[in-house]
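Task 17 of the worksheet. Students: predict the tertiary structure of the chain below and write it out as structure tokens. Keep your answer in the requested format; marks are given for formatting as well as content.
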Amino acid sequence: MRSNIKNIFEAVEQSINTINQEWGSFQDQIREQLPPEYHTELEDLNIEFQLAVSELVKELSQPVLTLATTGTTSSAKSTLVNFLCGAEIVPVAVQEMSAGVVIVEYSETKSLKIDQTPGALWECGEWRNLTDEDIYDRLDQVMKSYLQANRDGKTSVACPQTTIYYPFRLLADPKLLDLPEKTKVRIMDLPGLAHVGDEGNGSVIRKCKEALCIVTYNSAETDRQKVSNLLQEVVDQVKELGGSPARMLFVLNRIDEFRKDQNWPDSEIDFFKKTVHDIKQKLTKELEEYQEDISALKVIKMSALPALFSMQMKSDDQQKSTQASRKIDSMFNFLIPEEIIEDLPRKVERWENHERRRVAEKVWEVSYAEEFHKYLKEHIDENFPQLVIPQIVDRFKAKAGNAVAEWAIQTTYAFINSSEEDYQKECNNIFQIRQDISQFILQKAQELRGPFEQIENALEGLMKESGQMASPEQESIDPRTRTDQIIADIIRELRESSYQERADSLVPLYGWRKAMTEGVEEILEPVIESLDNGKLRLNSKTLQAANPTILNLLERTIDDLIDLGYSPEVAENGKEIEARTYEEKSNLTKLNDKLNQLADILKLLINEAVKKILEREMRRVRDALETLLNAYLSILEEGMSSIAPNIGISFSNSQMVKIDIELQPSFEFKAGFPIVEGTWLEHVEVPKHKRDWWSLWIWKRIAYYIETKERSSDNAKLPKTEDILKGWLLQKKQAEVEIYRQVADWFISQINSFLTGVESSQKEIVDRYQERLDKAHDQARLSHQQDLSIWNYLQLEAKQLEDNIKKAGKVLR
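Model answer:
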């Protein structure tokens, strides 16, 4: 059986205390053997070590648990936040209200802070000693002001950022969570998908990688197309949160809808099984690198709103209890068993306390609130330590742990080899170590860089091919497919190498293309379908999430095109037009203007959608790079330690795996349909005087001749929708090859930076050992004596200390 969360934190703290005791004993013993010149260095090192230990113990005793909530459209996510808080303080509405990030920090007193943000149209500041209603109303006005500004196209207005300080029940009730005594808990209510990229939101969301996430799904939706959109929303939400889905708890909220059905047990069970299967299948398809985590996902049922009301019914505040009872009776009467309803007075105000408690307990049960708390606690127990402890321990190692282990190993080994004969041998050994490590890093660098250089070289070839006249055979080869195959081959090779356990983490290197393709098609296909049918059908998820002003303009443009004669027949076959008269030219100009306007609108929509998709997908690519570099750091450390076991080579992940440059690939889609100036031949009757022979050339008469005159025209070929689609998809194809190249370049540059850091760090470690060996040699020449038995014993102690520091925090595994 798993230890609970407190035991895990206590075990890690105990391991650090043991290391501290070992270090204390070791330094007392070595101080007796060291010349006085070493004492200051030892004291300074000990001070740094004690500060690092104190900071680590403090962080372990006061960890920060962040619960981040997100969800699909109309999934009652904000209601779930209110349920966790035990009060209605976050606004809820039929339409999406979540725009900015709302953070709820635990506090004994209630207050609200609204940050000053660019272009804010609402009052900013901090208010103390508020009621629940005050908090709700202020937030409600802020959200509505922002959403109205967004609808009005005021892009300069940044999303609101607010913090509520509140004694929420999740921490106030010690029975709900079994956490270390001083654990800080915050709830982060994340914005809806339409606003995740808004100014201020993205940076906050990207910082919550150590958060445990609750993803809510709208169980009340039955429309097949909308259900499909919801499943895609789940995937997009997971991608926005970043990292593994293992830290996410999935909640099928609003499950009470099934209780309205007479055969609800069967329909609820069928829905639950199907939805869990569909969510896992969708996630597996789009997040291949996390297949194992996805198969073990926790998905639970919940009805947050009746659960909140049932809790409020038990309040000692009679007015609050009555209000909650009234809401239960009017909105969720079907959740109350008939035998209980028959015993209740008709008016809620007349319900006795024991009757209210009886109703509340039954509604609490059927809303699955108890099960929710059980799974939430298990989720926290299982994932919170792994998210928090490794980072805390790594910071300890970076600040002093690795330095202490290195000093202990190197100093003892330096004195063991300080005699003249051993000193010369060890200097030669260091020279050989430098060569061996350099060769080892070179080998691993090629192993690490090689696959991405393959990608880069292949892409260079593809880019050259695209600029030349391709043969029919070349035209049949899709460069993106070839690139996908190259990456798939690399992943297969990695599965057979030392990186085999994490090879699948590189799937995002080509997985982004599928997401980009779907996003572009979700814009183009509804537009093409609307033109093909002569009727607006713009109901795709990507279009509905677009800027409302641009979407409205798209609708009007399609309607205008249809009115101007772009009929379903033209959409299917295209049409050659030669406008000769002023009126014909005017109509053609209008039609062409609308086609160009359509192209411009599509360009805006596609560029906006692709930008958002790539931002989301490139976070997965960044995660893949971090996973790759962390794995190779372990391989490099292990290999170097094998080459030089007595130098104490250790690396900190946070120091070595630094990705300083964000991956932001770009490609601009272009728009336009031309009108070509042309000519046409007009046959005209021209009068001419003529003398005939039979009149002896005396009389003239008027005769008419046909002359051909060249006239100007405006010529255009109205493209059929198939050609419009091909044009955009060709641009998408070109974009993908270019983005592949940018991703490969970025990967190689980050790998080079990582390898440079590792090489520099190990060189400094070896240099320090050389300095310590030289210093020990000088001391040996002065004292002319060495007691190797003592130093050999101390080195064993140093080795034990190094081993325990490396293992620190690994009790989790």
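Marker's comment: The CA atoms of residues 451 and 490 lie 6 Å apart. The longest helix spans residues 721-783.
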